[in-house]
Amino acid sequence: MKFVLPILLLIVTSLAASAQPGLLTPATEATARQLMEEALASDLAWDIVESLTTEVGPRLAGSEAEARARDWGSELGEQLNFDRVMIEEFELPYWERGDMSITMTAPYRQALYGTALGGSGASPQSEELEAEIAYFRTVDELMAVEDSALIGRIAFVDGDAIVPSQTGAGYGSANQRRRIGWQHAQRAGAEALVVRSVGSDSHRFPHTGMMTPDGTEWADMPVIAVSNPDADHLRRLYAAGNSIRLDLHSSAGWRGESRSGNVVLDLIGREKPEEIVLIGGHLDSWDLGTGAVDDGAGIAITTAAAALIAQLPQRPRRTIRVVMFGAEEVGLRGAQAYAETHASELAAHQVATESDFGAGNIWQLVSNVSEAGTPAINAIGKIIAPLGIIRGGSDVPGGGPDISPMAARGVPTINLMQDGMDYFDLHHTPDDTLDKIDPEHLAQNVAAYVVFAYLAAELDVEFRE
Amino acid sequence: MKFVLPILLLIVTSLAASAQPGLLTPATEATARQLMEEALASDLAWDIVESLTTEVGPRLAGSEAEARARDWGSELGEQLNFDRVMIEEFELPYWERGDMSITMTAPYRQALYGTALGGSGASPQSEELEAEIAYFRTVDELMAVEDSALIGRIAFVDGDAIVPSQTGAGYGSANQRRRIGWQHAQRAGAEALVVRSVGSDSHRFPHTGMMTPDGTEWADMPVIAVSNPDADHLRRLYAAGNSIRLDLHSSAGWRGESRSGNVVLDLIGREKPEEIVLIGGHLDSWDLGTGAVDDGAGIAITTAAAALIAQLPQRPRRTIRVVMFGAEEVGLRGAQAYAETHASELAAHQVATESDFGAGNIWQLVSNVSEAGTPAINAIGKIIAPLGIIRGGSDVPGGGPDISPMAARGVPTINLMQDGMDYFDLHHTPDDTLDKIDPEHLAQNVAAYVVFAYLAAELDVEFRE
User: Fold this and answer.
1) ipTM value for the complex
2) How is residue B210 annotated by DSSP?
3) Which structural domain range is residue A111 located in?
4) Which of A209, A224, A251 is the last residue before a domain boundary?
5) Which of B54, B232, B430 sits opposite A237 (nearest CB)?
6) CB–CB of B233 and A202 under 8 A?
7) Per the CB 3.0–4.6 Å rule, which of A152, A158, A403, B156 could disulfide with A399?
8) How far, in Å, CA of A35 to CA of A310, rounded?
9) Do A233 and B289 touch (CB under 8 A)?
10) Are residues B310 and B243 both part of a single domain?
11) Secondary structure class of A250 (helix, strand, coil)
12) In this structure, is the dihedral angle defined by the CA atoms of residues A175, A179, A181 and A184, taken in order, positive or negative?
């Protein structure tokens, strides 16, 4: 990989500005605005996500590919002039998809498009798994089933496609059939569980995703998601009174311990190197696509934003840290490892946020920082308003999945909320590939992140209570 | 299946009208307009395509499923009050997809989304097929390769995604890599041929389709189409100077003789039963999707149009024939069988057309009938103009793929051209499923077909030269 960095055309009033602590000076604001313009004109984030998805490819947590991604991230950090590049490895249980097939055998034979859910088990090695389905319109119906009521049957939980929305609001409830369904199917003695994919699209793609929180418990049965059109098909056949039978095979399962890791890239603060403004994304991806929108985009946006700041004649006052989290998809393993490894530094983390909701335009800035720090966030909001970003609530917790363990330990957060209208069309599917990213939207994201990261690190404002 | 037919609210001026031969009378026009209104308000076509895709499913030419589709078509004809229902079987060579896998093994390991092309052969049973690719930017580059130049290599023909268009104009040229590529890969001694899918989408779906005209010749090697995003991925890796290796397996091949057939549904003309107005679609489909837009929609549109006419108090003057052609996808086998079986009647076929371009709105009517018959087509064009249909050329040959053998033998044609903007996103892919059909567009199609079929059969106009 080779990246062409823009030569910043900054009139270095920022040097003068740096002498003045406190809220936004005209010179600091001018630097922030110039960084924003540079970001809008730069291809750097696109080049990064193209490199990651093309040169590394899919990056399942704990896999050899994820290890290559760490090396890639570390090399990228060196190339982009970060001051400190660290790979922080950790252990985790490794789940692998293996092969899978699912075929309807009655009322007639038809191959379905399915995939194993993360944490699911294998079908019996020695015998065929072929059985009639027990149909459940919703996961609530499955949850109400009596113990041992499904012996000899395959449970099928239908549900509905997610209604697309800017915020992705429908994901949490739809996700219950993936998160909770298997426990009840297992309790009722089912041979396997098949669920409608948790997605908003109407394409023949199955959506994967973790069933179990972190690999500390798992299903002893195959759990397969089928695409929305396939689930529609089964629903229609069931409604017409057909007995439906499925034949399925899966060799998915936990394969013992493996290694993952976080890649940490620092621009060391010139005055307060111990104080940290943290941005990042996650480096691992599901294995069906190439992890472009989830979360190559987040890696690219945040790394590119920091790399533009690295071109300034001097470092901002505080340290800007980009974290490429490992093993997010399998239970926030990297986020937990980060919070543990850096436990003693967390009190010096001023503010943190993650880009992990695709590559759509940012439309809102929300925050959850101290009262004293909120005017600075408001000032950032004003500068990025021309990007189409409105200033939302100043008491909205969040910051992204990998931020949650540190937020729980008191690290303030902001969230640059992306338009998720098509996110659950792509998320966790084979269709999460580079062509789904709009380079102009990506640049808009970098423009917002660069302003945030620069000012949060430069302004002499306390974001912690 | 059970279909609810609308009760027609016709004031039966059509009886009086029928006494007057020649061009359009007010009463005949009123009947045509009322049929058009009924069609717009009717769910019949939707119910038919839902039934076909759900109760029968995918219908590969020569398969058991296609035989079930013939029984379904015949039963449908009885239910919808056709006067004569015939299944006309014929023999054909049977190609089956079998299983397939394609994995990139260098520069790293990644599964690709591919499918065997129709007529392609199997990989060696006893050994793995793993080789470096020889990259060809276009099929023309492959065609220029010297004999035996590709021994030990897998040829990869890239090309470009089809540019979406109303007419689907880009399909013919893109199709060359599917139709012609394999002959040159074979001549050059390649182990296998992999091509970019012939499609306009950017989804992770491979597109299948026949490589060879009719199963009379075939490739001795695997020929695999990979999705546009996969082809993009290989292109980027190749451009970055990587040596790319693929591992592939396919058990596709010809399986000997099987049977297909046409289903013929007639509304027998009250005055000139021997004269035929022919409409139809094809009953077979590729096996990856459920054949909703290709061509369940065409079956539904034309059958529903004729079924509305069957509700009139009396039959039109000429016979209206709906043909559900078999084995279109594998080389117009049903069309050829029809032209042979009905050779002696072809001179009495007044005009013919097929609906086989999806389920988009009809936007243009073109024709290729006698000078004497053209004013009647113009009159039909005026009646359907409020549906948004313009009157195009009156000397445009066509009428649909299954019409071509009879058109070559002198049968006049018309074409109700559908908007194909998204057709090559769906065509021949797993994504050709019921949810892609807009019921309102489908009803607009029926409205146009019912006017055409009724008036072409009722007006005492000679469409043949």
Assistant:
1) 0.93
2) B
3) 98-251
4) A251
5) B54
6) no
7) A403
8) 11
9) no
10) no
11) strand
12) negative
